[in-house]
Every structure is written in C-alpha cells, then in structure tokens.
Automatic annotation (TrEMBL):
<dbReference type="InterPro" id="IPR041602">
    <property type="entry name" value="Quercetinase_C"/>
</dbReference>
<keyword id="KW-0560">Oxidoreductase</keyword>
<feature type="domain" description="Pirin N-terminal">
    <location>
        <begin position="16"/>
        <end position="130"/>
    </location>
</feature>
<comment type="similarity">
    <text>Belongs to the pirin family.</text>
</comment>
<dbReference type="Pfam" id="PF17954">
    <property type="entry name" value="Pirin_C_2"/>
</dbReference>
<protein>
    <submittedName>
        <fullName>Pirin domain-containing protein</fullName>
        <ecNumber>1.13.11.24</ecNumber>
    </submittedName>
</protein>
<dbReference type="InterPro" id="IPR014710">
    <property type="entry name" value="RmlC-like_jellyroll"/>
</dbReference>
<feature type="domain" description="Quercetin 2,3-dioxygenase C-terminal cupin">
    <location>
        <begin position="175"/>
        <end position="245"/>
    </location>
</feature>
<dbReference type="InterPro" id="IPR003829">
    <property type="entry name" value="Pirin_N_dom"/>
</dbReference>
<dbReference type="InterPro" id="IPR012093">
    <property type="entry name" value="Pirin"/>
</dbReference>
<dbReference type="GO" id="GO:0008127">
    <property type="term" value="F:quercetin 2,3-dioxygenase activity"/>
</dbReference>
<feature type="binding site">
    <location>
        <position position="105"/>
    </location>
    <ligand>
        <name>Fe cation</name>
    </ligand>
</feature>
<keyword id="KW-0479">Metal-binding</keyword>
<keyword id="KW-0408">Iron</keyword>
<dbReference type="Pfam" id="PF02678">
    <property type="entry name" value="Pirin"/>
</dbReference>
<feature type="binding site">
    <location>
        <position position="107"/>
    </location>
    <ligand>
        <name>Fe cation</name>
    </ligand>
</feature>
<dbReference type="InterPro" id="IPR011051">
    <property type="entry name" value="RmlC_Cupin_sf"/>
</dbReference>
Length: 251
C-alpha cells in the first residue's frame, strides 16, 4: 500500500521563464527547464502560471496528443487554431483544446482585434496539460461559461473525463482518470478536497490554510499521493485549482 504523502511546493521554488513580454512560472519541467525528478504528478504534466503583456503572446505553434486546459485569472486571451476555432478566453470561461493527431494554435493578449476595445492590461492565466487516453484522435475544442457556479464559493468541476462527472462538468477531456475542479473562496469559506490516489492543489490567487499543513499563498502548490479529503479554508479571497487523478503516468 502506498504511504500518504503531502508534498508542498512553494511559489518561489518554481522554474521560471522571463522575457520582455512573458513571465511564466512552471510547476513541472517545461521548455528549456528540465529536471528529471520533476516531470509530472499523477497525470498532470504541465501547470504553467503565465503573465503576458498587452499586444504580445504565443505565435502559431504545434501540439500533438495532449489535453490542454486554459484558465484565465485576469484579463483576456485570444485563441486561434488550425481547425478554425477562435475566440476570447476570460475569467470564468472554461476552455479545452484536444491536440489529438495534430493542431496548430496561437494565444495572444490582443482581444481588440476581435472586440475593437483596446487595453494595456496583462493577461494572467494558468495552462494545464494531461495526456489523453488515446493517441492520434481528431483534434477538438470546447469552451463554456461557468462563472456563476464559481462565484457560489463551492468546489466546481471545470473539466473532466470521469464517467461520474458526466452532466456535471463544464467541459470534457479525453482522459477517464482525470478531473479539474476550481473554487473562488471568500475569506473564511472552506471546501473539502476530493479523495483520489493523486491530487494537485494550486493556489492561483490569495491565501488559504490547508488542514494539517498550514498556510499556502499565491503560486503555492501541493501534491497529494494516497490521501485526500482535507479542508481548504480561505484566509483572504482566494481562487484554487484542484486536479483529481485516479492514475499516474507509467503506473
């Protein structure tokens, strides 16, 4: 039997990419940053916390066989891809791109091209990648507004491939072992984490206390193995993202 593990990873210890238009913090190995001891947790390979300046962003680039979920915290991000999907992602809009057999896309902070309203605000977002159950399938895209549910202060399913979440989740992903939940918590509000073989808790903004582990701040993360069910309580208004995973890469 696997022993329970609660592994706290502090914000300042994340890998860091900084250029003139991008500030990106990586929870796992990414790009030129490679640490063989930090490649994933459960099924989660990427948890990037990005800040992109106005008018800038990621030019068209390819992906393959990856489920990519993007969650905007502040500002707006324009998505365009080679299958003809395009739109503006903003806080409360759940978005998933299935790269499948191959897709090209761009992500830029230039929503005025579509809306006509200029701005100089950077966009803050978290992008998360999991491996799909099946490789080589046709690429896909899905988005849905779930802001009202998050404002309730409860833990809400943002994306899932779990059979038990059908009809409850905002968007689907092609992995039957994984689900992403999120909550916006007013000060003093508590939620209970799911129970699963693997969990990943990310504090996207604000600060919370984790039962039996203490205070976590913006950018802190916790990797749970063989444990769950703990209470998370907001010290100040906070937003959290929680991956529930019932399998692991290579397991």
């Amino acid at each position: 039997m696997t022993a329970p593990v609660i592994d706290i990873r502090r914000a300042d210890d994340r890998l860091h990419t900084a250029v003139d238009w991008l500030d990106s913090r990586h929870s796992f190995s990414f790009g030129q940053h490679y640490d063989p001891a930090n490649t994933h947790h459960g099924l989660l390979l990427v948890n990037n916390h990005d800040v992109v300046t106005a008018g800038q962003g990621f030019d068209t680039h390819p992906h393959r066989d990856m489920e990519i979920v993007t969650w905007v915290l502040r500002g707006s991000l324009v998505h365009q891809d080679s299958t003809g999907n395009s739109g503006v992602i903003y806080p409360g809009l759940a978005q998933r791109m299935s790269a499948g057999s191959g897709i090209q896309h761009s992500e830029k902070n230039d929503s005025w091209r579509l809306t006509g309203e200029t701005h100089d605000e950077p966009v803050h977002f978290v992008q998360m990648w999991v491996i799909p159950d099946e490789s080589g399938v046709p690429p896909g895209y899905q988005q849905l507004e779930i802001d009202d549910e998050l404002l309730s202060g409860n833990l809400v399913t943002i994306a899932s491939g779990r059979p038990e979440h059908r009809g409850q989740t905002a968007i689907g992903i092609r992995n039957k072992h994984a689900a992403l939940h999120g909550a916006r918590l007013p000060a003093g509000r508590s939620v209970q984490l799911p129970e699963a073989p693997y969990l990943h808790l990310f504090v996207a903004r604000g600060s919370v206390t984790l039962e039996d582990a203490g205070v976590l701040g913006t950018g802190d993360a916790v990797r749970f193995t063989a444990t769950g069910g703990q209470q998370v309580t907001a010290v100040e208004p906070a937003e959290i993202l929680v991956w529930e995973m019932h399998a692991s890469l290579g397991a």
